[in-house]
Amino acid sequence: MFTRYLLAMAAAAALALTLPHTAPARALPPQAPEQCDTHGAAGTPYSVGVNCRVIDVDGHPRKFIVYVPDRAPVTGSRAPVVFMFHGSTGTGQKFLRISGWREQADATGLVAVFPTGLRYRVLESGRLSTKWNSYDLASEVDLSERPRGYPDDAPWPADDVGFVDAMVSDLQDQLPIDRHRVYASGFSNGANFTARLGMERSTRLAAVAYTAGGLTVRQTPTRPIPMYVTAGSADPKLLDNVGLPELPLDPLALLDIPMLRSGINTHLASLGLDAGDFGVISANHSTSLRWPATGTGPDGALFRFGVLEALRHNYPNANNNPFGFEAAPEFWEFFSSQRLP
Question: What is the pTM of this model?
């Protein structure tokens, strides 16, 4: 989105998503097991606490954690759901611990879901890393190497959108969730995937919000889903590409940065919003821009972009930045005002 690390994309990426696997697959080593209060296959009833589940997607087991709080939801009789997609090298277990969404679930009664991406051999570094299938992933990884036991005839990169569909179906079968209040958040590569998910599941997700990532290509969602994006003013992955020591908090100065403006315009064009119709929300150590300036655009379209002072390449959780920014409560405030019809 806002930098080359978000805009990196080969012209053949879209084609690679559909090409059959032809080279012999090299098996990746297994990952370490997560710690669970309860565990089982999809279809196993959920209980209060940390529920670790495995679901088959295209013939391969996929892991996810569902945190069910011990309180009623604040939004009504049925619980809202928030999916949290980790960044590269992350896991659902790690982001259960550090993202703040477990604590937000305890405070509001939402159900928080923490999936784990599959591992890929990254071309640039040669290292294994968990990844989500964002629009540009196929150009970044070795498509000849797959996890151990991954079927040769299954999509690769993996169908992570289908994985989300499967998780939503399991939640609907096992818990009293509010189908009008399903949301997604993400960090870095997980943010890029959350943006893709918002475009391709705009009629199933009420809103999306993410940090350090976003749309790399213009899309046309069925519904112009509300979106909220944040970036750290001291994110080195961003600064390396814009040629600045730190992002400014002045809104007009932000919009004068070509890569930043390009990424914002990709979102606005996808949502059918007027780039000139924006307002500014200023706070201590942060700046947020809002399109449209007031209300919502066509069919409820809404886009927010915020810069958080001194935040580096992190999903803000109060302890990893000097001004105590927290993504989960900020994004929850945004989510709680958005509901599918």
Answer: 0.90
